[in-house]
Amino acid sequence: DTGVSQDPRHKITKRGQNVTFRCDPISEHNRLYWYRQTLGQGPEFLTYFQNEAQLEKSRLLSDRFSAERPKGSFSTLEIQRTEQGDSAMYLCASSLLFGNEQFFGPGTRLTVL
Amino acid sequence: EDQVTQSPEALRLQEGESSSLNCSYTVSGLRGLFWYRQDPGKGPEFLFTLYSAGEEKEKERLKATLTKKESFLHITAPKPEDSATYLCAVPGSNDYKLSFGAGTTVTVRA
């Protein structure tokens, strides 16, 4: 399977703990995106990388959130000091440099107790 | 700010009962409109991209159409496996940030 992959698929953590998610995009895709989706809503944009450069961060991304994409390959999204309001599905997507279509991974479901 | 509104929120159909989903949008210059299918607990699956008014795309029992203010996803003679949430989205002025609607959840009963 050469699609977008995410790990882990599910994460349960206690409030105040740190969590890290990984995303592996489609290999030839230069652009990588993170979105967050809560129940009954569409995905909301969090941040975007073009190769290794993080080019935009949504105001939804508080200072407890950090994302990296070393060497322009996989990406990680870390949430520090998790809060119950962080519970959501975290989705990663990738696209070609000059293509609009974004292809999504299966997501990481985060539950903060 | 780009806005995307989908209706209805939920649609219950009998197998074979055709229907349409609506996606209305407000953007400053359309750079494409995307339809995705999302199954419970999974990521959105790309279906179609439409770029200009009058354009149509088809895939199996699904057909997407686009006007200057809205898009429709027509489901012809649906089957239970067409049950899913259908999302539409538009890219922002910088092309990369998708703004999604809340989706229409379609349930097809046998």
Overall 3D form of chain A: globular
Strand content of chain B: over 45%
Mean pLDDT of chain A: 94
Helix and strand content put the structural class of chain B at mainly beta
Number of strands of chain B: 11
- In total, the number of strands of chain A is 11
The structural class of chain A is: mainly beta
Q: Can you tell me the residue ranges of chain B where pLDDT is under 50 for at least 5 consecutive residues?
A: none
What value does the Rg of chain B take, in angstroms? 13 Å
Integer average pLDDT of chain B: 94
Low-confidence stretches of chain A: none
Keywords:
heterodimer; A: 113 residues; mainly beta; seven-stranded mixed sheet; four-stranded antiparallel sheet; 11 strands; 0% helix; B: 110 residues; six-stranded mixed sheet; five-stranded antiparallel sheet
How would you describe what is shown here?
The complex is a heterodimer of chains A (about 110) and B (about 110). By secondary structure, chain A is an all-beta fold. Chain A has no helices and 11 strands. Helix content of chain A is about 0%, strand content about 50%. In chain A, strands 2, 4, 5, 6, 9, 10 and 11 form a 7-stranded mixed β-sheet that branches. In chain A, strand 7 (about 65-70) and strand 8 (about 75-80) form a beta hairpin. Chain A is globular. The model of chain A has no long low-confidence stretch (mean pLDDT about 95). Chain B has no helices and 11 strands. Chain B has strands at about 5, 10-15, 20-25, 35-40, 45-50, 55-60, 60-65, 70-75, 85-90, 100, 105-110. In chain B, strands 2, 4, 5, 9, 10 and 11 form a 6-stranded mixed β-sheet that branches. Chain B is globular and about 45 Å long. The mean pLDDT of chain B is about 95. The interface of A and B includes residues 45 and 106 of A.
Which SSEs are present, and which pair or pack?
The complex is a heterodimer of chains A (113) and B (110).
Chain A: E1 5-7, E2 10-13, E3 19-24, E4 31-37, E5 44-50, E6 53-57, E7 65-68, E8 75-79, E9 88-95, E10 103-104, E11 108-112
Parallel strand pairs in A: 2-11
Antiparallel strand pairs in A: 1-3, 3-8, 4-5, 4-9, 5-6, 7-8, 9-10, 9-11
Chain B: E1 3-7, E2 10-14, E3 19-26, E4 33-38, E5 45-50, E6 56-59, E7 62-66, E8 70-75, E9 84-91, E10 98-100, E11 104-109
Parallel strand pairs in B: 2-11
Antiparallel strand pairs in B: 1-3, 3-8, 4-5, 4-9, 6-7, 7-8, 9-10, 9-11
